[in-house]
Amino acid sequence: MLAKLAATIVVAGALVAGLLLPWVGGPGLVARNSVSLLDALPVELTDETPAGPSRLLAADGTLITNFYEHNRTPVTSDQIADVMKQALVDIEDSRFYDHNGLDVQGTMRALMTNLAAGSVREGGSTLTQQLVKQTLLQTAKTPEAREAANAETVGRKLREARLALALEDTYSKDEILTRYLNIVYFGQGAYGIQAAAQRYFSVNATDLTVPQAAMLAGLVQNPGTDDPISNPENAVERRNQVLQRMHDLGHISAQELTDYTAQPVQVTPGLAPPNGCIDASIGGFFCAYAKDYLIGTLGLTQADLEKGGLTIQTTLRPDMQAAGDQAVLNTVGMGAPVVGVFDAIEPGTGHVLAMSVNRRFGCGDPAAGCESINFATIPTKGSGSTFKTFVAAAAMERGLPASHTITTPEPYTSRVYESYNPETRKIEPYKIGNVGSRYPNTLTMTQALYMSSNTYFLALEDALGAIRPAVEMAQRLGMNFDYSVTQTPAQQIIDENRPSFAFGTDGVSPLDLANAYATIAAGGVRCVPTPVLSITKPNGEPLTGEDGEPVVKGDRCEQVIEPGLAHTLNQMMRRDVEPGNRMQTGSRAYIPGHQIAGKTGTVNANDSVTFVGSTPEYTASVMVFRPRDNQSVGGYGGGKPASIWHDAMLPILSAQAPAAFQPADPRYAGRGVDAPPIGDRSSDGDDDRRRNRGSSTPPPAAPPAEPATPPADGPAPPAEPVTPPPAN
């Protein structure tokens, strides 16, 4: 080590004597004509302070987590105790205020001191030179750049010397000292004086005492060897050397020296700030979604997050996140084999408000109750009859009103769609039945939707003539079918004309489902889901892209279906939740005094159950499913999911005045969203559909018989291929 230092000093001496002699004058080096004779300062050296961690904030400004490579919190000069500045200058560069970046006298003194001590006790470079080296080293973006910044070569020393002179010519001494204190490493993962003060003493840099400042100043040369937490004996010895130097230079008295050196090592270790989504204070899965959005959608890099010092304002509502977390855990225990997910989104903006999962985010060990898979966004299991809403929307857009009545036998056999029967090994007409025997044969579309009649919706698919309108409606509302692991591409569903689409058999993203229903709640305005409101740089200005425009563009929304159609659907789905609609399936989600539109869903074997509910201000999807097997989770979509929705939204809705959905549009409601059945006739053909819709006064008919207790929504059949598998 001493040989390396001696060699470095020889190199520095050669530089001074041979290259910089023309600019030497007086007691120190004076830079002349620096604009023309010295290298232009690289951008890394022109920033006033190094960037700190990027902060991910909730909508109310509270901290969710940080992203950083180095634990550093930049502070201004007046936020650093004067004794800290003095201790550092005294031990590292006592002639700091006299030289102009290079100090031959100080370098030779350091060599003699270190040779006498038998170890490196005093630095050979000026603080300005050290600032140059540390800045280039810590901002290096490639291994080659890092190696160049740390190489013991004449070329590196020459460049470092030139840049040190240029820095001195550009910035004040206090600015240089402040920047150095913000960038230097103090051990224990702490970069910069504020992080070090917090790590070792749990205080701010402005509150450091003389002994604390002396201890930190002594860490700069050997932070690992003199660490007061791991090596207290070394630390107190080094601290006392700094105190002695401060006394020798007249900055503390003899009595203060005696008092301070008599004190033992007194550390109060503090924790490092949270780093990454695994440390998120709330909404770990939302944090992971936001990070993926920042990188995958907005084009930021990991380095941007860890080194950019950005402030990222998100859409997360802590109150709704906390309510969702508690509601999920009230019904599905932490780390249980069954996954419970609650996703909330704001209709009309696409702002994602909460993502709750009965897991801790990050470790990837389900047995320990934590996950790295984001079940709140990834399609895993189907959502069952929630897809009937898409079929209803497509039918209404094609001219069939909410009062459109169909009579179906039990079970119902399609006249349009076919599927492969594994028992007969033949292509046969697609057939489906309801759960239980209490469903009326004759229903309006409204009744069929809130009762969740399977037979009605297969007949309604028959009325559409092909599955394409329903699939394209789902896409327009916000559903995606591009996750190859659990989803069939939309075009394949259309090409194969799969009738099982209405029954939600493929994997569904809970976020997609919430967003599609939010489109309906917003009067047909679909918005791209977003977790980010703004991103600002350390100087407070918006982060911009290559085009010079802010990377956060604002809400991205468009009208995708007629408002009247959406309003009518909301009124239809209110019948599934609000009192007075027997055989409804989502009554457990009801919160008195509030209008709530909802739909339940259950897949075969009951291994996935779902409820989606909306008010005019909020939409939330709840899915409870088994991610790794096909056992029943217990109950239907109107059970656990509806209960979770109720528990999550109760504290939110109770704290605000009720809001009302827009009334149904007569063009889509027909004779009303709650009209009784027209009669026993099935609207099998186009002529029948036109006659039923066009007649002014329907014949009187009694409402269908209803059981004393509401049934669960009908589970969906498994998806079936339209062509047989290869022969064995």
From TrEMBL:
Compositionally biased residues, Basic and acidic residues: 681-690
Region of interest: Disordered: 663-728
Keyword check for Signal: no
Any Pfam family: Transpeptidase
GO cellular component, one term: outer membrane-bounded periplasmic space
Record domain Penicillin-binding protein transpeptidase: where: 344-649
E.C. numbers: 2.4.1.129
Gene Ontology MF terms in the entry: penicillin binding; peptidoglycan glycosyltransferase activity; serine-type D-Ala-D-Ala carboxypeptidase activity
Protein name: Membrane carboxypeptidase (Penicillin-binding protein)
Lineage per the UniProt record: Bacteria, Bacillati, Actinomycetota, Actinomycetes, Geodermatophilales
Gene encoding the protein: ponA
